[in-house]
Amino acid sequence: KALKTVAGIGNSQYNGQVPLNTTLTGSTYTMKDPSRGTGGSFGGMAITNANHGTTSGSVYSSTSNTWGDGQQYISGGSTTNANGQTAAVNAMWGLMNTYDTHKNVLGWSSLDGNNTATHIAAHVNTAYDNAYYDSSCKCMYIGDGGSSFNNLGSIDVIGHEMGHGITDATSGLIYSQESGGLNESSSDIAGEMVEAYARAGGTGTSIPNTGNDWMTGKEIAKNGQPLRWLYKPSKDGSSPNAWSSTIKNLDVHYSSGPNNRMFYFLSQGSNSTSSSDYYSSYLNKSPLAMTGIGSDKAYRIWFKAATTKFTSSTNYADARNKVLQAAEELYGVGSAESIAVKRAYAAINVGA
Ligand code: ASN
Ligand code: ZN
């Protein structure tokens, strides 16, 4: 018989008390949600305990449906809380909101659009300072953090990693050169959109225009510095703000910068009238400042282009043309939205 989800409560590390959907079998609750994805490795969206190993492990279970204590554990290599539930709460809340953002706003079910369940393995490795999407399990592995990070389960990092799953299931953007930068940018964008959706309560059918910070991973960094600044990528000291023919030589986490900035301009606009904020192909535009179309429309446009038009070798020039095409299909040729796409790309030196 079909498993029924029940409403649980989680004490998260970064977001206070959060709602969780779990499964009750007999008198045991499991961190599994068959209402968000079917099949997969565990018969529904799930959170597992890798218990400091490198394989997923088994699904969290408990006799109580209140999970975690919201405390921060495992830093600097200490493994005193190997089975701590707080990391699992972070993961489940992030994954639920990633699912709901794409399902409720875009009608896209799970990562592949076909509602195949995915999972996150928490407590991967020891003092592990990374989180990643693994295309072989179609799941995410998440570290507890070591010298640089606390538990890597912030809402935007989970949205980012699951964004890799969406890219993997659709365009398959190759993870090097310009396509790799776009792959990374698509994940950074997804992370911010999930953050905005979750912070507004995780319901509704649009992406709120506020609530995200336009920085990737600010919550997890021990030094308080985000990994990336979408609104001005150069703040990290390594990412360019604009496209040039040499960005293809950069690490993909830097060549993502210009497209992140494009998306920020498209969504939020820019009130700058300083020519130094824009790049050559933009400087004949009037006025220099530009009006954003809001995160909801911007993400609808980006998502349509990325999932239905991009190919594995899409580069910046191709992305610009396809994002423009998506805007024209959604909002009309010559629409304010399509003009905003042209301006946002011109501002990072792509197209006219
Ligand atoms: N956290 C990294 C990322 O998703 C993992 C990697 O190096 N690919 O970009
Ligand atoms: Zn990434």
Describe the protein.
The structure is a single chain. The protein is α+β, with helices and mostly antiparallel strands and 352 residues long. It has 2 domains: 8-169, Roll (Elastase, domain 1), CATH 3.10.170; 199-347, Neutral Protease Domain 2 (Neutral Protease, domain 2). It has 8 helices and 15 strands. The strands form 4 sheets. Strands 4, 5, 6, 9, 10 and 11 form a 6-stranded mixed beta sheet that branches. β1 and β2 (17-25) form a beta hairpin. α3 (177-199) crosses α6 and α7 (316-331) runs antiparallel to α8. The longest helix is centred in the middle third of the chain and has 23 residues, at 177-199. The structure holds asparagine (ASN) and zinc ion.
The CATH topology of the largest domain turns out to be Elastase, domain 1
CATH architecture assignment name of the largest domain:
Roll
- Total helical segments: 8
Look at the structure and give the mean pLDDT.
95
- CATH top level label of the largest domain: Alpha Beta
Quick one: biggest sheet?
A: 6 strands, mixed
What's the number of domains? Answer: 2
From the N-terminal CA to the C-terminal CA, the straight-line distance is 58 Å
Question: What's the count of strands?
Answer: 15
User: Level of helix content?
Assistant: 25-40%
- Strand residues, percent: 15-25%
GO molecular function, one term: metal ion binding
Active site: 161, 253 (proton donor)
GO biological process, one term: proteolysis
Keywords: Hydrolase, Metal-binding, Metalloprotease, Protease, Signal, Zinc
